[in-house]
Design brief:
By secondary structure, the chain is an all-alpha fold. It has helices at 12-15, 38-43, 51-60, 82-103, 112-117, 119-123, 133-150, 158-180, 184-207, 224-236, 240-244, 246-264, 268-282, 297-302, 307-332, 336-360, 368-374, 381-400, 410-418, 420-425, 432-443, 463-477, 501-512, 514-530, 533-564, 570-609, and strands spanning 213-214, 219-220.
């Protein structure tokens, strides 16, 4: 942090850490100005931060970490005898040479017997003419050991210490450069490829159904809110604060888009209700870096005295989902057999979800009626989770089977309710009510009230744009962040009897992206309910192209920032985790779920709609 309180920059005060050692035998630094400029005095002597590891290990007498690359600070070893000090340097050098052997093929095991037998030969070896780095570091290490062998209690050991430090400095510099070296040519080629990808998606959007620009009238074909959200997000990637507090960006834009709909469209009471519901969603889980510890609804619900409220909200949410499915089937007059099968499976999966989380909680359900219901379900948690998986697959099958042409468009709405047991299984119980609020916000989008003013048309954000922002905001609203520490592994092994990397990875992804997945399905359902046949396929293709244009341009911006900041202190602690999340969004959410899953779903809906 610098003099005015800023952090995250490249100045000396922002990238340096003060080392303060207090203890017997450590001399203090005199301050001629009585400490008025103490910080500058301390920063006058620079040491590598990695030196803290080996220095503390030697001072406390504990083993040195095997991946240490730091050199011990000689100023703090002066209180030891020559023999003890040389033994410390030999210990650190042996540890670092182990890393040299692990990373360099030319470095082999040192023959200590030969060094003991011929120390003079090894001590006088000229290592500067050796071409390969591994052999040169081996030569210097052997020379230091040989000089250590020749040293006696009556000789000056400064040459031996210097030999050890020369080897450690050479090895540490070489290994550090190898571990943090960047191939700028490949990185530049990657950026060029990303630019080409962004241009390709832009062309696909322009000529594939959703025009970006009207060339004849020379004006934008997309709404100003969409352009504003895209531009501000790309500009925000230049700041590390976006990575730490990205949820604030999406919370702001969701409410802004709803406020624009309130000002430019009808249905104002419904929009006000959506804004109020989302404000509750926003307060449910505090996330990010600065506000993660602030009071929120989650903390209140997780208090032991409020455990009953968690289960009340869970039961109400699951009951509302089942009631919504029943109402939809009754309205669209589906086949009685398949409708009853769907509702029965949904009710069974909901009860299994409730039982799974109740069994895993210290304050689970204890009512007598619930004990009778629980006795009819599988006995262990793994079987309960597997029952939910199986029921979800059957729900998808029964939703597509036996549909009449008049009731075909209930299939997209079936998906919104049928997928809920799976998403709730992999979520925390205190977040059940958040999904209930998602349902409320989504239901208030219907029906759309058209605007009568052409001047307001460019300012009116579409429902799909609002749902897009809600999908990103829901990721953070459920308690996630761009930090790897926030990944929830509590339900990653639900129903998994043996460790399976692929299956556990899929469950972690579904659990972490439960909110975005549901909102993506809500967006596809919205399009499917208002478009038919070939137009539906064209509309979905255009929307997917626009979504990939957003994601490709975002990935390009973050890649460019990471390339420019590759030597910055935050590149590993901030930018690298954010980059991993961006890859997960691109590959897992947009490509696998959005494109492949979305096209398969639309194809199934179109097929069902043509069945008589």
């Amino acid at each position: 942090m610098n003099e005015i309180g800023n952090h995250g920059g490249n100045s000396q005060l922002e990238t340096s850490t003060v080392f303060v050692f207090i203890g017997s035998g450590i001399a203090g630094q005199p301050m001629a100005d009585h400490g008025r400029n103490a910080l500058s005095k301390l920063l006058a002597s620079n040491v590598q931060q990695s030196s803290l590891v080996s220095t503390l290990a030697l001072l406390f007498g504990v083993p040195i970490p095997k991946n240490n690359l730091g050199l011990p600070l000689p100023e703090l070893l002066g209180g030891y005898s020559d023999r003890e000090r040389l033994h410390m340097l030999q210990t650190v050098s042996a540890q670092i040479y182990g890393l040299v052997r692990a990373n360099e093929n030319n470095a082999v095991a040192v023959d200590l017997q030969q060094i003991i037998a011929n120390p003079a030969v090894y001590a006088k070896a000229d290592c500067s003419h050796i071409d390969t780095a591994g052999s040169q570091m081996q030569c210097k290490y052997e020379a230091a050991l040989a000089m250590h062998r020749q040293a006696s209690s009556n000789t000056d050991v400064s040459n031996v210490e210097r030999a050890y430090y020369e080897f450690m400095e050479l090895a540490s510099t070489h290994l550090s450069r190898a571990s943090s070296g960047y191939n700028l040519q490949l990185m530049t080629m990657g950026l060029v490829l990303m630019v080409a990808t962004v241009l390709g998606f832009a062309v696909l959007c322009q000529f594939g159904g959703t025009s970006l620009i009207h060339f004849k009238s020379r004006r934008l074909a997309v709404s100003l809110p969409a352009v504003g959200m895209w531009a501000t997000y790309l500009l925000s990637t230049l700041s590390s604060s976006l990575i730490e507090e990205e949820h604030q960006f999406w919370y702001f834009w969701v409410q802004t888009l709803l406020a624009l709909r309130l000002a430019t469209n009808g249905g104002r009471y419904r929009t006000l209700a959506q804004m109020a519901a989302f404000r509750v969603v926003r307060a449910w889980n505090q996330t990010g870096q600065f506000w993660a510890g602030e009071p929120d609804v989650r903390q209140y619900l997780n208090a032991p005295e409020n455990a009953w409220l968690v289960w009340v909200l869970a039961v109400v949410t699951l009951g509302a989902i089942n009631a919504a499915a029943w109402a939809l089937h009754r309205r669209y007059r589906r086949s009685v057999l398949w409708s009853r099968a769907f509702r029965g499976l949904l009710a069974y999966a909901s009860v299994c979800v409730l039982a799974y989380h109740s069994d895993r909680s210290h304050e689970g359900l204890t009512l007598g009626v619930w004990k009778m219901v629980r006795a009819c379900l599988p006995s262990d948690s793994a079987r309960l989770a597997q029952s939910v998986y199986f029921a979800t697959a059957l729900l998808a099958a029964t939703s597509c089977a036996g549909l009449r042409r008049a009731g075909a468009y209930v299939a997209p709405l079936d998906a919104l309710t049928g997928v809920m047991p799976l998403l709730l299984l992999l979520s925390r119980p205190h977040n059940f009510a958040v999904f209930g609020l998602f349902f409320v916000i989504c239901a208030l989008f219907f029906p759309e009230v058209p605007t009568n003013s052409q001047s307001r048309e460019l300012l009116l954000p579409s429902r799909v744009l609002v749902i897009f922002a809600l999908a990103h905001a829901s990721f953070f609203a459920l308690g996630n962040s761009n930090s790897l520490a926030s990944i929830d592994l509590s339900n990653a092994y639900a129903g998994v009897s043996r460790y399976n990397e692929a299956l556990v990875g899929v469950l972690v992804f579904i659990g972490s992206w439960a909110g975005p997945l549901w909102w993506a399905m809500a967006g596809l359902a919205l399009v499917a309910l208002e478009t038919e046949g070939v137009r539906l396929q064209l509309q979905v293709r255009a929307l997917l192209a626009a979504a990939h244009l957003w994601q490709a341009s975002t990935l390009l911006a973050i890649s460019w920032v990471a390339t420019m900041m590759r030597t910055h202190l935050f590149v590993w602690s901030v930018f690298s985790p954010r980059y991993l999340y961006q890859i997960a969004w691109s590959v897992g959410f947009y490509l696998a779920c959005g494109t492949v899953g979305g096209l398969m779903w639309v194809a199934a809906i179109v097929y069902i709609a043509h069945q008589r």
